[in-house]
Design goal:
The chain is an alpha+beta fold and 666 residues long. A hairpin with a 5-residue loop joins β1 and β2 (11-12). Helices cover 23% and strands 24% of the residues.
């Protein structure tokens, strides 16, 4: 019978469901006063076979589900286990086989080692009569054997003191999976019970059925616990039932009604995305980690919800995907990689010429490229009229495309008219929906070093912040780093609480290419920038401008006049507002040497013996008046030299949360 109707009036047939809430309430009322009894119990034996040793995709999925490792972290830790770990007297030893493979094949000596450990530690009843053999997929390259420990006798407990916490977790996962693959199946008693409920109020009999299992022999489950990506409601081994021997009557404990609606498929997380890539033949085992990293680095997707979070497409990701799929349908086909692998195998077997493959590819690509050049939409010039109104002048707003996605702009803006309206606002509707339960889960997503698996930190270098391994300055160093995009480097301006001396608007702390600086919030109309000035001192050359600290393109700091380019005074040493007692120079220079910090006169010159030969003067260069030179020998030590630079004191600065560096007077 139909359980209800959809919006179009068609009948719906839903198994074990009631059509509406009114019917459900009637059944619940009838079952409240009913006699419950077991009318039949059926039992059968079912085996659950062990799983094959890990291949790359399965390792990445299990590490995500059981350990909470993302793909990059998993491959980074596995790389260190493969390269080798110092085991004391044994020296540096590789603990696992190569971790980029699509084959479950295992070497015979490895099977023998696992069987010896099982027989010795667990007993012969856990050991099958012959070694278990597993077959890979038809299109597997089979270049490397499965991911396994190099020696099954090297248990995680025996080497735990030599491994980091994350290395021990991943090695334990690999070791248990491999050993379990050479054990006997687990045995369940699967029970199906039929239950009848006779209502005292209506006299009707309501039939129920429940299926479950009782573990009779653990087998390989003694070593390895199976992790299911999604539990199947029909999987009888997933439900555990108590023994029902001799049970005839039951007592009602609780009735739990549930509403079931058709749900959209969940968004991908790293584990499910790797599984989908593997099933569709997109990429190879060695490329899964780089694929997931690339789509995040280029901001095609964002991940919310911590290490087990879900991917949400960004606006730029959706636009790029639509344009590429629309204009390059041959290449941007989900089956393209799988088809290419098959054609490469045909070339290897000699059934296809490699020139035919390249000509066939380029023929499609050349034509699609020409069509895209003529017909591809120009997103940057897009101006879509909307119903939104400008908050300043009331003119209609248009939707434009900028560096970071779409935004609203006033239609009255005229580039040639400085007085025209410049109002803009963010297009919130195009951003990912962060109000879902998945997006509200655990906080910020940590990033892990792809070489050693440690949590990467943000550091500040000469050209701005970047992500780097915490062992960047260790011995030996781990030089893994990742550049941040311009948008990732930019922080929202923070108000300083000071007014602009030129226009009165608030000053804000901004992030620039050479670090943080304070400027007017009214930019670009007001271009005031707060400078680090030397207090109480004017430029000794022009007498009007102030002396400000500046940074050259190469990163070195110097001091120059604020009236530049009218005044070209510069100094590589910090000027000090003190008069020279020897020659009367209006200022001194602060010089730092190994022997200490000194105040020297700017007129101090080297002796004639120390003077280097004069450089050849150009034809147009003015002659130097040697008599105008003033030679002064004044020098005074004012303090000790700072300690020599080290990696801890002068290495890249690690960014800390809620940390703000204020500009201090020189």
């Amino acid at each position: 019978m139909a359980n209800g109707k959809d919006k179009e009036g068609k009948e719906l047939f839903i198994a074990s469901a009631l059509p509406d809430k009114e019917t459900m309430d009637g059944v619940l009322a009838a079952l409240e006063k009913a006699d419950w009894s077991i009318t039949g119990v059926q039992s059968r034996e079912q085996q659950r076979r062990p799983l094959a040793p890990f291949i790359t995709s399965q390792l990445q999925r299990d590490a995500a589900n059981k350990l909470g490792f993302n793909v990059r972290r998993t491959m980074g830790v596995a790389q260190r286990l493969y390269e080798g770990v110092d085991l004391g007297a044994e020296g540096t030893t590789g603990l696992i086989t190569y971790m980029r493979t699509d084959s479950p094949r295992v070497a015979p000596e490895a099977k023998t080692g696992a069987r010896e450990w099982i027989a010795k530690q667990l007993g012969a009843h856990y050991l099958p009569d012959s070694p278990n053999v597993y077959k890979g997929k038809k299109d597997a390259q089979d270049a490397h054997e499965a991911i396994r420990p190099t020696d099954a006798a090297r248990t995680p407990e025996s080497i735990a003191r030599f491994l980091t916490d994350e290395q021990l977790k991943l090695y334990t996962l690999i070791w248990r999976r491999f050993v379990a693959s050479q054990m006997v199946p687990a045995v369940y008693d699967v029970t199906t019970a039929n239950i009848a409920a006779v209502s005292a109020s209506t006299g009707k009999t309501y039939d129920f059925r429940v299926s479950g299992s009782v573990l009779r022999f653990d087998g390989f489950l003694k070593v390895y616990e199976v992790s299911e990506d999604k539990k199947d409601e029909d999987d009888e081994t997933a439900n555990r039932l108590p023994s029902l021997d001799g049970v005839k009557t039951l007592e009602l404990d609780e009735l739990v009604p549930e509403d079931h609606f058709t749900q959209p498929p969940p968004r991908y997380n790293e584990a499910s995305l790797v599984k989908e890539l593997e099933e569709r033949g997109i990429g190879r085992p060695s490329t899964y980690a780089s694929i997931i990293s690339t789509i995040q680095d280029r901001e095609y997707v964002v991940k919310h919800g911590g290490s087990r979070g879900r991917f949400y497409p960004t606006e730029i990701g959706v636009v790029v995907c639509d344009l590429l799929v629309e204009n390059f349908p041959y290449i941007f086909d989900t089956a393209y990689t799988a088809k290419l692998e098959t054609e490469l195998d045909d070339i290897e077997e000699g059934t296809e010429k490699w020139t035919d493959l390249l000509n066939g590819f380029y023929g499609y690509f050349e034509q699609e490229l020409k069509d895209a050049g003529k017909h591809m939409r120009n997103i940057k010039r897009m101006e879509q009229v909307t119903d939104e109104k400008c908050d300043v002048c009331g003119s209609p707003l248009v939707l434009k495309w900028g560096k970071f996605g779409t935004f609203y702009a006033c239609s009255a803006y005229n580039k040639k008219d400085p007085a025209s309206c410049t109002f803009t606002k963010e297009n919130i509707a195009a951003k990912p929906d962060l109000n879902t339960p998945e997006a509200q889960e655990a906080g910020d997503t940590e990033e892990y070093c792809e070489n050693c698996g440690k949590v990467m930190v943000m550091r500040r270098g000469l050209f701005g912040p970047f992500m780097a391994c915490p062992d960047y300055n260790a011995d030996p160093p781990c030089k893994t780093f990742r550049k941040l995009s311009q948008k990732q480097q930019q922080k929202p301006p923070e108000p300083t609480g000071e007014p602009c001396p030129m226009c009165g608007k608030p000053l804000v702390l901004r992030q620039g290419a050479y670090g943080e600086f304070v400027s007017c919030s009214g930019y670009p109309k007001c271009k005031y920038v707060k400078q680090n000035l030397i207090e109480g001192m004017k430029c000794p050359k022009c007498g009007e401008g102030d002396l400000a600290e500046r940074r050259a393109r190469k990163g070195n700091i110097f001091w120059g006049c604020t009236n530049y380019p009218k005044c070209g005074f510069t100094s590589n040493l910090k000027p000090v507002a003190k008069k020279c007692p020897t020659c009367g120079s209006p200022y001194l220079l602060e010089k730092t040497l190994k022997s200490g910090v000194y105040l020297e006169c700017p007129n101090k010159r080297k002796s004639a013996e120390q003077e280097s030969p004069a450089k050849k003067r150009g034809k147009k260069a003015p002659a130097v008046d040697e008599g105008a030179k003033v030679v002064c020998t004044y020098s005074k030590r004012i303090g000790d030299a700072p300690p020599p630079p080290t990696a801890e004191t002068h290495g890249p600065v690690i960014e800390k949360k809620d940390e703000r560096r204020e500009l201090q007077p020189a």
